[in-house]
């Protein structure tokens, strides 16, 4: 007898329907699995055999052929266990007259017949819904992930026996109740807050500007000055994720298999890859299954690179294209996959090799040439994409011990959201000031004669390099937005120019 | 470039890297038939070099082919030679005990005929000092060409200050071909285009440690005075100042606050009689030159911030903002404006100082 069950395969973030066909024939006992299965899928035989028997069902002792169609896509992962088991049971006539048609099944089986969670449920569900599938059977542990998708009927079950019961109509099962994103948003909170940061007035202001305009930022300061703490505050002042953004982010983390209990990511991600990270770990890759890298996991959030000059040159240079395009296409022998990578880059570094340049307590022992060499480790093109460069200064003990707190993240966030609203109105999309090209700069950042004069003065006196010009204008635009000023005024230009430490040719 | 007979022989003599300064002079003397000391010089050369070597050197020195090769080689590099016998050899320099035989020049040679003033400093020059140095170099350059070295820190600040006017002379510590090995290569190329870069060493000479000291005598020798902007107790800038004192030039030094190691040498100079330099007027008035300044136009807030800087020295931005009752971002704006006007300078760690 022949049976067919539907499951899904993932290519990047796209789901492709996979037909699981089982055929049981008379003949010598055998079990053949075809259709480009990888090791995890091939091993499913033993799991399925035990799971079926331990669910008080019968594993047929005949010639069994399983085909995963289409046969030209590689089938990876353990989520084919459930559909194969159901197909075998159906083909051997153990489901009575009922058919599993109309269900999409995903799940890994344990030997005792219970269902184990699998990675990538959310993107598979989203693509399946787009392709017209409406009923799903998934492992109970993945229920939270599915709860946020509307208009589908998802059954989160605990075991194979329950799945059989659902199909044959012998049990009473309710689909997963829908959850609202708002409640998830409310219950989640970041660990840090701007009010916990002592001092650092300049860096705070720079962070606010950076987030308001979507600019990338470089924090330079002596060790222990609080660069990491400041960076951790960035997500707390970013506008909340919208539901669509949250789904996008969750899909990526679902594929990567590092989704938590909640099932949806409602907080902006904050990723801190170590400086030994390779190009592949940053950008994504993998032997057969291509996985998202750190920059995709930081999608809609912050990628924090601590000790920027310590990263390998090739890893840093690989960030250049995704910083422009906001997506990354990873091509491997197994195919090519595009992952979103719309992140805000925050980098930190010491000001000089000994770390004490500009410190109030310790004398810097580096020569200008050494400092220059250290800073030159970051290539011009990369620096080009970092609009703000600020110094974080060492905090004095008295400041640390003081009770006075700065503004809280919520207050800063209000201003950021206001500035973002102005930008949405200006560009008519979710574009931010940082993404402006030359054409937009010409259109939206017209400078008065006075501003031009100030800008020219800044270039001459501060020995700025030519590439700093458009960045200063973009940052000035954001400062003007925060100031609710429709046009850029000279003071905006002056402030923007002060956040450009690294462009000065003297250093 | 056409050279006279005397110039030709100096250039040819200077091209022998194996000869030292005295031997080069002796070689010219020995081959000059009109010179009464010719025989004595020849004897001395034979004694120090050995007869065989001397004869070889002499033959090459006199051969027109060898000389043509040298001139071609120099002109291909765009180098103009100013020799001790040239009319445009700076007279100040000719008066020092061992004037360079040839100055290999790239850039506007006529700067050598004007008056010069040297500004030197150590590599580790504090930001505020460097900024003051840059400002003074720019102002002095209107009246005298600025002579300096090629190092980071004080020298670089002096070059940057004087470069816009083009009146800047850099003295290399090696031959012209060594420029690419220096950390400041890009800046020196700009000086070649707009000012003048000179060296007493034949272009292919690689930099060696002792050459810095030898070079410093030219910086001092060319100039009417030397300003030392920063110098720790042991510093090349102090060697230049020492030469300047030996040659009877005026020595100026920036005062530094206590405990700043980069300024101890300067303070020592002042203790020993160097002139204390606070502004351009201090330098120009010593040479009887006039100096006019137009006061900068400042807003009320800029004035307030500037007086806080003047009163407290290097200050953190938070301190500045709270002293004048401003928000941080307003203070940033005003300090940025002051920086552009050249009145304040950023010292690292979000600290600022008045210039």
Largest interface: A-B, 36 and 33 residues
Low-confidence stretches of chain A: none
Q: Tell me about the largest β-sheet of chain B.
A: 9 strands, mixed
Helix content of chain B: 40-55%
How many angstroms separate the termini of chain A? 78 Å
Q: How big a fraction of the residues of chain A is strand? A: 15-25%
List the helices and strands and how they pair.
The complex is a heterodimer of chains A (about 500) and B (about 350).
Chain A: E1 2-11, E2 14-25, E3 30-34, H1 39-42, H2 44-54, E4 63-69, H3 81-91, E5 103-105, E6 108-109, E7 115-116, H4 121-130, E8 135-139, H5 143-146, E9 153-157, H6 160-168, H7 181-187, H8 201-213, E10 217-220, H9 227-232, H10 234-237, H11 243-256, E11 270-271, H12 279-283, E12 284-285, E13 291-292, H13 294-297, E14 302-305, H14 313-317, H15 320-325, E15 327-332, E16 335-340, E17 344-349, H16 368-375, H17 380-384, E18 388-391, H18 397-401, H19 409-427, H20 438-444, H21 449-461, H22 468-482, H23 490-498
Parallel strand pairs in A: 3-4, 5-8, 8-9, 10-17, 10-18, 11-14, 14-17
Antiparallel strand pairs in A: 1-2, 2-4, 6-7, 12-13, 15-16
Chain B: H1 5-14, H2 21-30, H3 38-49, H4 51-62, H5 64-76, E1 80-83, H6 91-94, E2 102-107, E3 116-121, H7 127-140, E4 145-148, H8 154-162, E5 168-171, H9 185-194, E6 196-199, H10 209-222, E7 225-230, H11 236-246, E8 250-253, H12 264-271, E9 275-276, H13 280-286, H14 300-312, E10 315-316, H15 317-323, H16 328-340, E11 344-346, E12 351-354
Parallel strand pairs in B: 3-4, 3-7, 4-5, 5-6, 7-8, 8-9
Antiparallel strand pairs in B: 1-2, 2-6, 10-12, 11-12
Descriptive notes:
The complex is a heterodimer of chains A (507) and B (355). Chain A contains 23 helices and 18 strands. Chain A has 507 residues and is α/β, with parallel strands linked by helices. Chain A has a 5-stranded parallel β-sheet with strand order 11-14-17-10-18. Chain A has a 4-stranded mixed β-sheet with strand order 1-2-4-3. In chain A, helix 2 packs across helix 3 (81-91), helix 8 (201-213) crosses helix 22 (468-482) and helix 22 (468-482) crosses helix 23. Chain B is an alpha/beta fold. Chain B has 3 domains: 5-76, no CATH class; 109-286, Rossmann fold (3-Layer(aba) Sandwich); 300-354, Arc Repressor Mutant, subunit A, CATH 1.10.10. In chain B, helix 8 (154-162) links the parallel strand 4 (145-148) and strand 5 (168-171). In chain B, helix 10 crosses helix 11 (236-246). The longest helix of chain B is centred in the middle third of the chain and has 14 residues, at 127-140. The two termini of chain B are 45 Å apart.
